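Incident log entry.

Two folding requests arrived from the same account within the same minute. Monitoring flagged them as a possible duplicate submission, but the sequences differ. Recording both here for audit purposes.

Request one:
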Amino acid sequence: MPSVLSLNIDGYNTKHGKWSVRRDYIRATIEYLKPDIVVLQAAFYNRLLDGSNQAEQLTRLLPKYPFCHFQPAHTHKGITEGLALLSKIEPADIYLHRLNNRPEYKEASSRIIMHAHFGFTDGSSFNVLNVHYSPVYEQTHDYLIETLNYTEKLPDPTLLIGDFCRPADSPLLALLHAAGWIDAWDSLYPNEEGYTYEAGGELRIRRDQAWSKNLAISRAKTIMNEANGVRMSSHLGLLVKW
């Protein structure tokens, strides 16, 4: 039963604690949950602070996750932000798809899809697509269309997971429903909120999501590790199994 943990780690944001402390909370969470694959959003590399990016720092603390891939999305003021994947087994392939920005929206952030393809000796395979979309409504509309066009070419079961930057009830997500994708949380727990992101100091947005195509998701769970005023991120983690 494969499992994937997704977490936006908030870069070097100190709202919920210094990175050096939050990093240990994230490590402990991964060690406790033992997911097969970990996907990270807002993973940073600041050469003035550290000699390695945040994903590499984590994998050094997690010997059971020998595979680590950090994919830069953009660099701003000397800080590189990207997506990352940690895994117990090495994927057969890692692909990058760079999403297109509308020219009228001059976002500092470029957005990408990190696509990991896992294949096994018994012939089974699946895809994990790690995403971090835009807070701009129209831009995420375009990103979702691009994502659907990209995934049409994928014959294997696919998990689309990450920070969608939109609440789960956003009209934009009807695009995924119409294309046959299934919202893992909503399909399993239609009467539970499943909030993952805070607004106004309270958890009230289900922004971190997992959508599946030809995968029967058996479990989804939001993950918080918090103590003494410190927690992993402003996001909760999202764990899914199938």
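Request two (distinct sequence, not a duplicate):
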Amino acid sequence: MDISVCRTTDVALPDRHIGSPGAVSCHARRFARQEAGESTCLVAWLDGRPVGHAEVRRGGCDDPDVRAARPGCPEINALAVHPARLRSRGIGSALVRAAEERAARRGRTAVGLGVAAGNPRAAALYARLGYRPLLDYLDRWSYEDTDGTVRHVTDPCTFPVRELDRTGPP
């Protein structure tokens, strides 16, 4: 498995192999943020096919309470491994570590991520990787459905944080 920064030629592949809700690709929106210098999109590849992704948002979580509790803490966003049969094989852990390394190289001392209250498997992974809960919040996001309707989503989440040492992750 390899992890690389998403390139222009890669944007359509996660949509084809991993999927994205709505008419406008979530991967394309994330890539646009990368092109604007706001984030870095990471893609996990297995046998030349994308099997996971994560976005490192330099400005941190959109939630104002999270930003106030931990100013300047970058967020690992949209971490996913697909198809499901590939989960628990280290792909998600490798994406998290790659994101941590990027944050550490930028001089950040911590990194956080949102985990939905209904996703105990992900919460257990993050705890094993050294993430500790900072606070609970409501993650609010939206997307345009294929019929043009804008769908608004609110997910109860916890924002765990991992402190990074000066040399980066272990």
